[in-house]
Amino acid sequence: ETGVTQTPRHLVMGMTNKKSLKCEQHLGHNAMYWYKQSAKKPLELMFVYNFKEQTENNSVPSRFSPECPNSSHLFLHLHTLQPEDSALYLCASSLGLAGTYEQFFGPGTRLTVL
Amino acid sequence: GQQLNQSPQSMFIQEGEDVSMNCTSSSIFNTWLWYKQDPGEGPVLLIALYKAGELTSNGRLTAQFGITRKDSFLNISASIPSDVGIYFCAGRNNDMRFGAGTRLTVKP
Q1: Integer CA distances (angstroms), B3 to A9, A82, B33, B70, B102, in order
Q2: B107 and B43 Cβ atoms separated by less than 8 Å
Q3: How far apart are CA B11 and CA B21, in angstroms?
Q4: Contact B9 A92 (CB under 8 A)
Q5: Per-residue pLDDT tens for B8-28?
Q6: Is B108 on the interface with A (CB under 8 A)?
């Protein structure tokens, strides 16, 4: 595997379900990000991790819970989501923080909340 | 603030035509980047611009970093069907800000 991979690619869940999104980067990067992409809106940065430490949380509701066990893996744990949380969730990584280094994106997980 | 205004929102063009899209902001950025997102995929970096006035090409793509550092444009020459997708601009200082995207449709 190369680049940034995300699983699953598609997820349909009910509002009472608990699920997790997984991201893995094979680029030797140190920073990882979660973005939410809704139709016709700019990418919304959710969380930033640098060397496994969370450096940014952009006022994301607590029903989204990130986890970064090491610099190569990033998870987004989901519970009691709302229909408006349906979107494409993109993971990205960069060598260092995005102020200096280019971000490389995964293919995303298309999430539908019923 | 650092919001980016990207236009047009969508374009429908004939194969072979040239395309132009731009991003403007009320804030200054140190770097401008252009990404393309194919259907069902994540954004892929096309061109990065690091200096005001810089003009950079990547094949049929040309992008410029505005002199004021508050804008950038992307041109695609002689469009082909595989140019279809969403093009995003991004401005970078300590973090990245993205435009809402330009959805390009190319009719054969």
Answers
A1: 29, 26, 15, 11, 16
A2: no
A3: 9
A4: no
A5: 999 999 999 999 999 999 999
A6: no
Give the Cα separation of A77 and B28 in Å (integer): 36
Q: Which residues of A touch B35 (CB under 8 A)?
A: 105
Residue B93 contacts A where some CB pair is shorter than 8 Å:
yes
Measured between CB atoms, does A104 come within 8 Å of chain B? yes
d(CA A47, CA A67): 10
Average pLDDT, chain B: 94
DSSP strand pairing (B85-92 vs B31-37): antiparallel
Nearest-by-Cβ selection for B98 from A40, A43, A107: A43
- Judging contacts by C-beta atoms under 8 Å, the chain A residues touching residue B4 are 42
CB A34 within 8 A of CB A89: yes
Q: What is the pLDDT of residue B79?
A: 97
Given the structure tokens 């019923």, which residue do they identify?
A114
